[in-house]
Design goal:
mainly alpha, Arc Repressor Mutant, subunit A, Tetracycline Repressor, domain 2, 11 helices, elongated
Length: 211
Amino acid sequence: MASKVEEKILRAAVDSFAADGFHGSTTKLICDRAGCTEGSLFRLFGSKEKLFAAALLRAYQTGRMSNEELARILENDDDFERGLRRAVLEFFNRLDDRYVRIATFAYLGHPELVREHLADAAVTQTVARTILREVYRRNLRDDIDAHTAAEALLGALWHFAFTSRIMAPDSKAGSREAKRAAVKNFVEIWFQGMRKPISPTTPSKRRTPRK
């Protein structure tokens, strides 16, 4: 369990890194915001780089939908496509905007930290498990790897989650309506690619009329 000082430093770091990035934030400024000494920061976190990684993780976890809740939505809706739209929209809606900002800064110097979250094994596995269920029910193709299919969908939605938050406010790209429409389109396109092909009906033989 984090100490009170550690918690104060982490909260101050999330705010600072989200506002000014890694290079724009100093340990002194973070400690001033937290009301502690730089000695405490380095004793608890070891380095500015490790504090940045901890702040990124904290921002990712803040308000994020749990894997259990994600699985419950996916598993309890008989309409797979509808449940998938609802689940991913709720997941990305709950992301802390500070996470998107810190992750954008991280891409410039520490991309490996962001990739860990974008390739969150638990989230991917939750979606992949539901895909396998639909394959078993013969609603989806069985010739595509479920894990790869889940990664493809989540990867596209991650990119949208980032871009929608940095678009100009007057573009309304970040509005709930725009997000809902985009998620609907992503899922529909993905679902069309995953859907089992419809077997062509065998044409009936035309009977030759008797003379």
